[in-house]
UniProtKB/TrEMBL annotation:
Active site annotation, chain numbering: 139 (proton donor/acceptor), 167 (schiff-base intermediate with substrate)
Keyword Lyase found: yes
A Pfam family hit: DHDPS
Residue(s) at site: Part of a proton relay during catalysis: 50, 113
Alphabetized GO MF terms: 4-hydroxy-tetrahydrodipicolinate synthase activity
Keywords linked to the UniProt accession: Amino-acid biosynthesis, Cytoplasm, Diaminopimelate biosynthesis, Lyase, Lysine biosynthesis, Schiff base
Cell compartments where the protein resides: Cytoplasm
Binding site for pyruvate: 51, 207
Main localization (coarse): cytoplasm
NCBIfam families with a match to the protein in the record: dapA
Protein name in the entry: 4-hydroxy-tetrahydrodipicolinate synthase
Amino acid sequence: MTQRKGSDYAGLSVAIITPFADGEVDYSRLREQLEFQIEAGTKCIVPVGTTGESPTLSHDEHERVISEVIQCVAGRAKVMAGTGSNSTAEALRLTQRAAKEGADATLQVAPYYNKPTQEGFYQHFKAIAEDVDIPVCVYNIPGRSAKEIDVETIQRLSDLAGITMVKEATGKLDQCSAILSTTNLTVLSGDDSLTLPMMSVGAEGVISVVGNVAPKPMIELVNAATQGDFETARNIHHRMYKLCSNMLGIATNPIPIKAAMQMVGRDTGELRLPMTPLDENQMEFLRETLFAFGLEEAVATT
């Protein structure tokens, strides 16, 4: 089988949270989380995406978080920097800076709120891909961006050398299949609970939220599916399904994952407005979910 563009990013990538303490980015805690991911064997770190609360970071914070991640990881994993924007000029500036700092790739979300035409999507991603020398992962997430990038547009984008990956978060397996059957792009799941179904039709990994607290089981699932051991992969999938669905269904990401990380002692749980914490009932539901999965550290009350 011909190797796909972007296959270097097959496996588990983790969309890491941005830790806060007293309203400021907690860089010490960020480095601790990076070491946890590297020890677990995470293939790629994805800072300042949706899970990293990029919409509420200042430009200076956004750039510094990326720089800190690159410096701390120091080649022990790949870094795919979240540098997308609904302004093409801003996305270009952020991506240029990340590339200069040493990012291995860039995650580019579909421009949100202004709802471009399909031609607008194409021209936006084309401008970025032709401006920088690092691989571009197109992030298709209509639930956040208010508009879907059509398969035909992704097919056009696949002809550009710099476009190598798609983070597919439409929730549609047909969309994943259509991209894989008509392009040479590497597809990465954008939904933890759909990782195995997507890999069954040819996706090569996941950019994970749940991996913030449970990277090793996600690595085991992806590795088993990659090796064609779908019985093992299914067993892990079913074990993780409730954790994944509850984590992302109880409230808007990254509210639940930050609460979970607080429960297991890996974060303060602090969010920036307009994100607000889980209520008491939601916290108890999440705690029970973590217990059922086997994260006994969640005994700590919050």
